[in-house]
Amino acid sequence: MELNFRVERFQFDNGEECCTLADSDGMPLMYPTLYVMRKLRAKDQAGTLENKISALSVLYTWLEHEEIDLNQRFSILNYLTEDELVNLRDFCANNFSTKSIDNLSQINAFKIVNTSEPITKLKTCPKYAPEFVKA
Questions:
Q1: Confidence band (pLDDT; 50, 70, 90) for 11?
Q2: Burial 101-134 (b: 16+ CB within 10 A, else e)
Q3: 119 in the Ramachandran plot: left (φ > 0), alpha (ψ -120 to 50) or beta?
Q4: What is the pTM of this model?
Q5: Domain ranges of the chain
């Protein structure tokens, strides 16, 4: 399995660099884009934005694999269960840039990333969820 979502960097006319999360066709995803524009863009540099959006790409890949519709779930206030959060935590600990896998059973073959990378992913995802509910 590969990450089906990617970070798209772009530059505004005024020279400001920004990025958003896009699907495999290059189409920006609505909620991550709103999150970047409303909460992150004013305070974070382009590199920091890219790291946070990369974390969201892992979240969205996990959601897709688990067949979880975050929009639908949050609209009825049905949040992720403890088991789902543990599964997401474990999923975040993998290095997706080293190689791709064909199914989730191969995920243990991945090299574990250095400790700061999963922490970035795990810090970003919970901050994103409340914004998703408010949007």
A1: confident
A2: beeeeeeeeeeebeeebbebbbebbeebeebbee
A3: alpha
A4: 0.70
A5: 6-134
